Amino acid sequence: MKTFKKTLLKSAALIVILMVTVACKTEASNAVASNVIAKDTLSITILQTADIHGQLDTHPELFWENDQVVFKNRGGLANIKTLFDQERQKNPNRTIIVDGGDLIQGSGYTALSEGKVMPNIIKNMGYDVIIPGNWEVVYGKDIMMNVMQDYGTEVIVQNMYHEANEEPLFPASWVKEIEGVRIGFVGINDPDVPVRQNPIFSEGIGFSGLDADLKTMIDAFKINEEVNVLFLVTHIGIFKQVELASNPIAENVDYILGNDTHERVRELIVGKYAKVTEPGAFGSFVGKLTLHFVDGKLVGDDYELMDVDPEVYKADETLQALIDEEKAPYKDYLETVVGHTSTPIYRYLTVENPMDNMITDAARWKTGADIAISNGFRFGNPIVPEDGNPAAITRANLWNLLPVNEPVKTGRATGKQIKDWLEKEMHNAFSQNPTERFGGWLVRFSGMKVSFSSQNERGHRISSVIVKGEEMKDDDYYTVSACVRPGDPLDNLCRMPNVKDVEVKDYTIHEAVEEYLQKNSPVSPTLEGRAYCEYLGTYSFSTVPGSAYKFE
């Protein structure tokens, strides 16, 4: 009976505290809106990186300015270290540095070392807390665990667990107290990782979703740990992050530090409960959120997206030496030139881009298939000719363009199969329901010309598909090439099921592209209207429905 009474008292106390928390949060939100900052304000800085994807050095970055694509050099982990140090000096003992995942995949150096080039570098950069992203699983569970445990910093994630015993992979949360103000962080990775990535990557790992159990955990964490400001560090993409900010799950959340979709949020996106940001990718940017407190109460915030400009933030010499040391065993192989391009090769566009036009052209050239398809990756640093001279393409570039190197496979599919598959992929990219989006970029292809309307209902977006100069016929068979996805059934090609006469080739996609470049350089890929939607236009960068966000 005593235990029952204690439980009742605890439940009643929890309800009261939650009511007070919501009331205080509303009061704080009003104060934030007024942005009245007192003289005795305590200011705490939160720095955020995301989706670095193994990019160790300064590299060309794409910007959209004055209605055109321009390129500038940005990034470099040693340059970020300088930025971190300068920001910590500006606000000593009041700065927290966060990374939102996808650190150990995306470059040749991380791929060939299976992520092992990263721990010593990350250990010396000064991060406070890190979460795993959807690509952290790429080398398998054991390697992911070993690499992340070697960072020497806090790693948190609430919804990943050992499948065998349902024990968590890492702690769900972390708290940092600064001068009496308690800042709490909860990590959340994408529960759809086993679908988005090759299924074999995440074997042995279970994922839980964004559900009532998560809300219970968040609410209890805020109360039990006496958290003044609560952050969700999420790797689920901008669309789902903005939806979550207005979902009752986030009722007691103040900020969502978003990651995954590489968006460059320059002004906080305000939801019903929380504010959302996402700080770009590849180490080209650092998000800086400054929180202002008076008497322990949040009274204002400032946010900016900082460019990691190597002219402004010179490389930290000690860290650069460590980076060079980690790269050394792989450098000669990766920096070998395999071709040249006379036009800029880049991604970021949601529908078509020169980078994937070149890759799918190479696959179709090598296989002889009617249609070559490629996944809708968003990463890959631009390769930019200078002074009218073709730009070199190295094996390191190939790993940036193609983050996994699997065998090519071919098969036959009917026109109806291909159209149904395209409709499904279009819904993944353009659904107006954020919870139904996967990434936000269409698959890419060579050998087809597709006209569609992104705003139409599911299953009714395609208006025309042209193959070999003729409208695709539902009952005719077409040969298709794609890459093996380990863990998928043999008769699946890039998530297209029930493909006939599947053949796995004895060469990989990297080998196909290298051979194509050797025989056809300098290449000159451009935008050709292979997929076109009048609503989106030619230069379609990501948009976030219901917000004023623009990719710049």
Walk me through what this model shows.
By secondary structure, this protein is of the alpha/beta class. The chain has helices at residues 2-34, 77-90, 108-113, 118-123, 141-149, 193-196, 212-224, 238-245, 317-334, 354-367, 395-401, 415-430, 509-520, and strands spanning 42-49, 59-65, 68-74, 95-99, 129-130, 154-155, 160-162, 173-178, 181-189, 205-207, 229-235, 255-258, 269-270, 275-277, 285-294, 297-307, 337-341, 371-374, 391-394, 407-414, 444-446, 448-452, 462-467, 470-471, 477-483, 500-508, 531-532. The protein is built from 13 helices and 27 strands. The strands form 7 sheets. The chain has a 6-stranded mixed sheet. It has a 6-stranded mixed sheet with strand order 8-9-11-12-14-13, covered by helices on one side. The model is unreliable at 1-24 and 26-36 (pLDDT under 50). It comes from Gelidibacter salicanalis.
Which descriptors would you attach to this protein?
552 residues; alpha/beta; 6-stranded mixed sheet; 13 helices; globular; disordered N terminus; Calcineurin-like_PHP; hydrolase; nucleotide binding
Unreliably modeled segments: 1-24, 26-36
Tally of helical runs: 13
Overall geometry: globular
> What structural category do the secondary elements indicate?
alpha/beta
Mean pLDDT: 92
Span between N and C termini?
62 Å
How would you describe the oligomerization state of the chains in this entry? single chain
Q: What is the number of beta strands? A: 27
How much of the residues is beta strand, in percent?
25-35%
Supply Rg.
24 Å
Largest sheet: 6 strands, mixed
Strand order of the largest sheet: 6-5-4-1-15-16
Helix content: 25-40%
